[in-house]
Design goal:
single chain, alpha/beta, TIM Barrel, seven-stranded parallel β-sheet, two-stranded antiparallel sheet, 10 helices, globular
């Protein structure tokens, strides 16, 4: 069995967690909408993840919607004491599966209560405010009304800790002026490294950085360099991509998701993979190549 503690631990809120977590998004149906194709397999994946030592699970009531929280509750409630469940608010799903913003304070309050109800919890461990924008990535703007609404729910004892997601460094600082944050969840992986400076700043403050789409998301990472390094190390390319994240910074808490037990075991095994100096140098160059390609595409 994989020893997840090989990658160390990092404090997420009030608890230290093993750094490799699990993202529950893929437990919903195609497009993160509707029920899973195989309900029993979804339950099995969650139970196997926890049995393997996973202590950090990421979810949201808008996955499905409602699907992943219901499966999570069915599979694991009553939850292990060492498990930290992190959820997000700030979006809702249209009847066609579209992703729509739900950023008004009253919508956020309702979402917190929905998460509490479907997870069968009296208090949520960590709630991330997920900002929405037309570009899908972070965009400038104040988060004061939204984050203040969550901070008030924290003061009422319904939320233990707060985090932010899909945010700029300026928005992180604004949130910290309202309440303490324990995590930032942004898009980051081998080929998408816009947050390098933010990650280092958060590490100095003891704040967790949780990369979403750590393996590329709906378009998995593809790179000849990644494939070559993986072959040399006799590992799967996605294992190398996860190992790179773990070695990038001690506050990095990847949450790769899957609906397959075999894929889950492969992801978790990345905690035991050590990348040498040559491998790190080659992998670090992938982002520069991707940036050059994006610049050429934008100017053409």
């Amino acid at each position: 069995m994989t020893e997840l503690s090989s990658a160390g631990t990092f404090r997420l809120g009030s608890k230290p967690v093993k750094r490799m977590g699990y993202g529950a998004m893929q437990l919903a149906g195609k497009g993160v909408f509707g029920p899973p194709r195989d309900h029993e397999m979804a339950l099995r994946v969650l139970r196997e993840a926890v049995a393997a030592g996973v202590e950090h699970i990421d979810t949201s009531d808008y996955y499905g919607p409602y699907v992943t929280n219901q499966i999570l509750c069915e599979a694991l409630h009553p939850y292990p004491e060492n498990l930290v469940i992190v959820t997000k608010v700030g979006a809702r799903r249209g009847k066609d599966g579209s992703w729509k913003p739900a950023q008004r304070p009253e919508e956020l309050v309702s979402a917190v209560h929905d998460n509490l109800s479907r997870l069968r919890l009296d208090v949520l461990d960590v709630v991330n405010l997920r900002l929405m924008s037309s570009s899908h990535g972070p965009s400038d703007g104040s988060l004061e009304p939204q984050f203040t609404a969550l901070a008030e729910m924290q003061q009422r004892g319904l939320i233990r800790h707060l985090g932010v997601s899909n945010v700029t460094a300026a928005q992180v600082a604004e949130a910290q002026g309202i309440a303490d944050i324990v995590s930032v969840q942004n898009h980051y992986n081998l080929a998408h490294r816009n947050d390098d400076a933010l990650i280092d700043s958060l590490a100095e403050q003891g704040i967790a950085y949780v990369p979403f789409f750590p393996l590329g998301g709906f378009r998995p990472l593809q790179s000849d360099v990644l494939t070559r390094v993986a072959a040399r190390l006799e590992a799967a390319p996605m294992q190398v991509a996860l190992a790179w994240l773990l070695q990038r910074s001690s506050n990095m808490l990847p949450i790769p998701g899957t609906s397959s037990p075999a894929h889950l075991r492969e992801n978790l095994a990345a905690t035991e993979l050590q990348l040498d100096t040559d491998a790190l140098r080659e992998l670090d160059a992938i982002a520069a190549v991707q940036d050059e390609r994006r610049d050429r595409a934008a100017s053409s």
